[in-house]
Amino acid sequence: MPVLLITRSPSVHDSVVPLCAAAGVGAEVCAEPSLSLAAWREADLVLVGDDLTGALVGLAPPRRTGVHVVGVGVGDDAFRHAVELGAASVVDLPTGEGWLSDELSDVGERASPGRLVGVVGGAGGAGATTLACALAQWHAARASTLLVDGDPLGPGLDRLLGMEDLPGVRWEALAETAGRLGARALREGVPRRDHLGVLTWSGLRRRLDVATARRVLPAAVLGHDLVVVDLARQGGPLLAELVDRCDDLLVVTPATVPGLAAAARLVADLGRDDRAGLVLRPGGLSDADAERVTGLPVVAAVADQRGVAASVDRGLGPLAGRGPLARAARALLADAA
C-alpha cells in the first residue's frame, strides 16, 4: 500500500485523498487507530490526521520513517503528538498542499538514488557521445535508464537513438518550470522507449543552466537505476556542477599525442578525482603512456567498430549486436556497480 491515511475527519479526508489521486498513488483510509497498526510498517507513507494523533500515541506504534501529521488548522497538540510519534513534519492544510503533493509524487520510488555516470571527451571527436549512448542502451535492456544530454552543441542524443519523433518533455520545458520535480513525473515525462528515456533539446536554441540541472538530476537518479550524462568538454560552471554529481566519470580519448595532451588539460581543469578513469580509443601510445600523461587510470579500451554510423542512421543507436562497444559497456557498468 503506497499511502496510509489515519483519520476520521471529513476535511482531512477531502483534502488528502484528491492529492493522492492527482499524484497517481493509492491511499487506504483507516478511521480506527488500532486497526491501522497492521499496515503501519508496510505503507510507503503514513499520514496521521490531527484528530487521531492522541489516540495513536496511546497505542505506541513502532518508530519508522515517512510519517507526517496532517490537519486543517492544526493546533499545538498536533505538534506535541507528532514528536511522540516520531513524525517528520506537521502539515497544515490547505497551506501545505504544495509540499504534500511533492512528497506524494515520489511515493513508491526507490529508497536510494541510482548511479550517475558522466562521459566526457578528453579530445574533440573521441567518441564520448557514442559511448554514452552505448552505456545507456546496454543497461536499458536490464533496468530503467535515463540518458541525459549535457552538451548543447551536440547532435541531440534522441537523434542518435532514433527517438527524435517520440513525444515527451525536453530541456526547454524543464527550464521554464520552477519548484521540486518528482522522480515519477520526470521518468514518465521524457521521451521513452521501453526502459530507456532520453532528456535532450527540442530545437536549435539550446541552453542549460546550473539551477535547472540541480533540480532535474536528483529526480533523475531517484527515478532510474542508471543515469548516463553526455558532458560538454567546455561547460564552465555547468560542467563542474554536473561532474560534481557523478558517481563515476569516464574521460574518452584516443591514445595519441594530441588526444592525450587535450585530455590532460581537461583533467587539470576538472581536478584530480578518484571517480575518474580513462577510456582509450585506438592510437599509437600505450596504457602506461596515457596514465602517465593524464594522471588517470585506464579503465577500458574501445576498438573501432564497423557499422556504427549505419546503425545510427537506421535509428537503432550505436549499440547494435555484439562488438567492442557492447563489451566495453558491460565491463564499465560492472565496474561502476
TrEMBL record:
Which InterPro entries does this one have? Answer: P-loop_NTPase, ParA/MinD_ATPase, Rv3660c, Rv3660c_N
Q: Which domain of life is it from?
A: Bacteria
Record's Pfam families?
A: Rv3660c_N (PF26563)
**Ranges where the Rv3660c-like CheY-like N-terminal domain occurs:** 7-112
> PANTHER family, from UniProt?
SEPTUM SITE DETERMINING PROTEIN, SEPTUM SITE-DETERMINING PROTEIN MIND HOMOLOG, CHLOROPLASTIC-RELATED
What is the protein name for this chain?
Septum site determining protein
